From TrEMBL:
<dbReference type="Pfam" id="PF03861">
    <property type="entry name" value="ANTAR"/>
</dbReference>
<dbReference type="InterPro" id="IPR036388">
    <property type="entry name" value="WH-like_DNA-bd_sf"/>
</dbReference>
<protein>
    <submittedName>
        <fullName>ANTAR domain-containing protein</fullName>
    </submittedName>
</protein>
<dbReference type="GO" id="GO:0003723">
    <property type="term" value="F:RNA binding"/>
</dbReference>
<feature type="domain" description="ANTAR">
    <location>
        <begin position="134"/>
        <end position="195"/>
    </location>
</feature>
<dbReference type="InterPro" id="IPR005561">
    <property type="entry name" value="ANTAR"/>
</dbReference>
<feature type="region of interest" description="Disordered">
    <location>
        <begin position="194"/>
        <end position="214"/>
    </location>
</feature>
<dbReference type="InterPro" id="IPR011006">
    <property type="entry name" value="CheY-like_superfamily"/>
</dbReference>
Length: 214
């Protein structure tokens, strides 16, 4: 995994506090202000009322404090996977169903109720950096899946070049890799571009073979 830059300055963050606990909201708002974060006013959620999750959140600027004692939806709106920004779960009841609901909505840190101002920073630190780490991991997994899908183009290009040049597959792979490096792309990207150029053979054009023999 790429080295992760640890966030520890939360000035400019916009916090959304979704709770029905007025005291908790006030303590959080005051603590966040001291940390340089802005609190966007949200109406208190009534007992038994389903929480409406915001759909305009940014991972770089927003953070949500979400009360697990409320009626929570199972997923975020407009999101296929995970939370759109860091989430801190406010925990009153430690019932597994409550904790599971917060976890499924992407809570990267928990704060026990009644809320204490002394744990706000550490909870934000954990939630923000866990969210950032998960984003990096998801990107890397996506890149690996894309490279795996493109391996078929590498196999076809190697077989094609070995056949038309009468060389071993190892030599064909080395030639393709050298050409990919010359073009400053991965071998998967390079072989995919060859397949798009020559969709019938899925391999390198015959007139280009001479430069690959070098």
């Amino acid at each position: 995994m790429k080295p992760l830059r640890i966030a520890q300055n939360f000035r400019g963050r916009c916090a959304r506090i979704l709770t029905g606990d007025k005291r908790a909201a006030e303590i959080l708002a005051l603590s966040l202000h001291r940390l340089g974060a802005e609190t966007i006013p949200m109406p208190l959620v009534g007992a038994g009322q389903m929480v409406t999750l915001p759909d305009d959140l940014s991972p770089a600027t927003d953070i949500v404090f979400l009360d697990g004692d409320l009626s929570l939806p199972p997923v975020w709106p407009k999101q296929g996977e995970g939370a759109p920004c860091p989430v801190v779960g406010l925990v009153g009841s430690e019932a597994p169903s409550r904790l599971r609901a917060l976890f499924q909505l992407g809570a990267g840190a928990f704060m026990a109720k009644p809320i204490s101002a002394g744990v706000v920073f550490s909870s934000m630190f954990l939630a923000v950096n866990m969210h950032n780490r998960n984003a990096v991991l998801q990107q890397e997994v996506g890149d690996l899946r894309a490279r795996r899908r493109d391996r078929v183009h590498v196999i076809r290009a190697v077989a094609h070049l070995a056949r038309i040049d009468g060389i071993t597959e190892d030599d064909a792979y080395a030639a393709l890799r050298r050409e990919a490096m010359r073009n400053r792309v991965s071998i998967e990207e390079y072989c995919r571009s060859l397949a798009q150029t020559d969709p019938q053979d899925k391999g390198p054009p015959a007139e280009s073979n001479k430069k690959w023999r070098a």
